[in-house]
Amino acid sequence: MIFCVEDDAGVRDIEVYTLKSTGFEATGFPDGVSFFNALKTTRPELIILDVMLPGEDGVEILKKLKANTATRNIPVIMATAKGAEYDKITGLDLGADDYLVKPFGMMEMVSRVRAVLRRTSYQSNSKVLQFGPITLNIDEHTVLVSGKQITLTLKEFEILRLLMSSPGTVFTRDRLLSEIWGVNYDGETRTVDVHIRTLRSKLGAPGSLISTVRGVGYRLEAGNT
Questions:
Q1: Which helix (H) or strand (E) holds 179?
Q2: Residue 152: beta bridge partners?
Q3: Which residues make Cβ contacts (< 8 Å) with residue 159, sequence separation at least 6?
Q4: 19-26 long-range CB contacts below 8 Å, 24 or more apart?
Q5: Residue 212 above 90 pLDDT?
Q6: Cβ distance 156 to 195 under 8 Å?
Q7: CB under 8 Å, gap of 24 or more: what pairs does 177-186 form?
Q8: What CATH number was assigned to the domain covering residues 2-122?
Q9: Angle at alpha carbon of residue 209, lines to 204 and 210, rounded to 5°
Q10: Beta bridge pairs of residue 21
């Protein structure tokens, strides 16, 4: 899930529409109040945060995010006005991961979102991901299930790594194709289904932790074993 905090309804709607059409889940908020209310129940993968907002501006919101242990590691892309060099520098100094200069193209936004998500995923402090009985070591490229090593193909490993990097997040088939096979892949989405089926089989009983969201994609969630 990507949160877009933007007070201009037209811009916000286009941002959300573009993200959804390129395989992401997204929702928009006009101000800090509605944004922080949503944060109480949903942790987004990334936040696109406009600097100029009614009430609390984006810089103040960013300060709060980085001061809270529950939200400090959520990647943030700041949207700044053209020529607002001070806002850009301030945002980066406070911990923003990237910035967009208004007016920006929607595909530039998508490209920066993907780049930040890849960078923050690989730069995670922990190179070992753990979920239930599954342990994935990114550096060693190994997967253990209940302490026993299993052999996965490169694509199966990358799918599992992506799912384990953000448990509970629904990854659409189109997004999995884009992230794992690349944006230029022109095959069918059922390729994802075939790999998921094989991955579940190799994981054994814990394979049921990979949940199907009908008509959308897949997510990793507890309570299915």
A1: none
A2: none
A3: 176, 180, 192, 195, 196, 199
A4: 19/109, 19/110, 19/113, 22/110, 22/174, 22/175, 22/178, 23/172, 23/174, 23/175, 23/176, 23/177, 23/178, 24/113, 24/172, 24/175, 25/1, 25/169, 25/170, 25/172, 26/1, 26/2
A5: yes
A6: yes
A7: 177/23, 178/22, 178/23, 178/114, 179/114, 179/118, 180/155, 181/155
A8: 3.40.50.2300
A9: 95
A10: none
Locate CATH 1.10.10.10 in the chain. 128-220
Binned at pLDDT 50, 70 and 90, residue 222 comes out as low
Please say if the pLDDT value at position 122 is more than 60: no
> SS3 of 49, please?
strand
Question: Phi-psi region for residue 168, left (φ > 0), alpha (ψ -120 to 50) or beta?
Answer: left
Average pLDDT over residues 50-72: 89
d(CA 195, CA 203): 12
- pTM greater than 0.70 (yes/no): no
Residue with tokens 């799918």: 159
Identify the weakest region by mean pLDDT among 7-11, 169-173, 208-212: 169-173
Fold of 128-220: Arc Repressor Mutant, subunit A (1.10.10)
- Examine the pLDDT at 86 and tell me if it is beyond 90: no
pLDDT at residue 225, as a whole number: 45
What is the location of CATH 3.40.50.2300 in the chain? 2-122
Calculate the CA dihedral of residues 19, 22, 23, 25 and round it to 10 degrees.
10
pLDDT interval class at 149 (50, 70, 90): very high
